[in-house]
């Protein structure tokens, strides 16, 4: 998988020009945009979401906290993942357990929120996770 720098080197364009062409922002000629898109496709370029999140100070992760991993909850996770991916988000899954202090809801929630997820979903079998 290629990096933005590699695309820049291969196309002979600056990283800023390559970035603008990939994002479709700013003035880029159609010829330049086509050159960049073709190179990105050939090299299987994928944007680095972590770098984007740092630069924008936002996250594209949807955090999901659950207290069990039974079949109905796993079905929900699969549906959430499908929906998130279709909209350009990633999904982080966190299991809570009062039996293990480092994964207890009260300990885990601040840690999850510190990463500033784009969204937070709680899936629970009872209201004990909220107590």
Textual characterization of the structure:
The protein is an alpha/beta fold and 131 residues long. It contains six helices and three strands. A three-stranded parallel beta sheet has the order 2-1-3, sandwiched between helices. β1 (61-66), α5 and β2 (90-95) form a beta-alpha-beta unit. The mean pLDDT is 85.
For the structure shown, list the relevant keywords.
131 residues, alpha/beta, 6 helices, 3-stranded parallel sheet
Major β-sheet strand ordering: 2-1-3
Structural class: alpha/beta
The low-confidence parts are none
Helix segment count?
6
Helix fraction?
Answer: 40-55%
Beta percentage is 5-15%
Shape type: elongated
**Major sheet, described briefly?**
3 strands, parallel
- H/E element sequence: HHHHEHEHE
User: What distance separates the N and C termini?
Assistant: 45 Å
Cα radius of gyration in angstroms: 20 Å
| Chain-averaged pLDDT | 85
Report the count of strand segments: 3
Short description:
The protein has 131 residues and is of the alpha/beta class. The chain has helices at 4-11, 15-23, 30-42, 49-56, 71-86, 105-114; strands at residues 61-66, 90-95, 119-123.
Please outline the helices and strands.
Layout: H1 4-11, H2 15-23, H3 30-42, H4 49-56, E1 61-66, H5 71-86, E2 90-95, H6 105-114, E3 119-123
Parallel strand pairs: 1-2, 1-3
Helix pairs in contact: 1-2
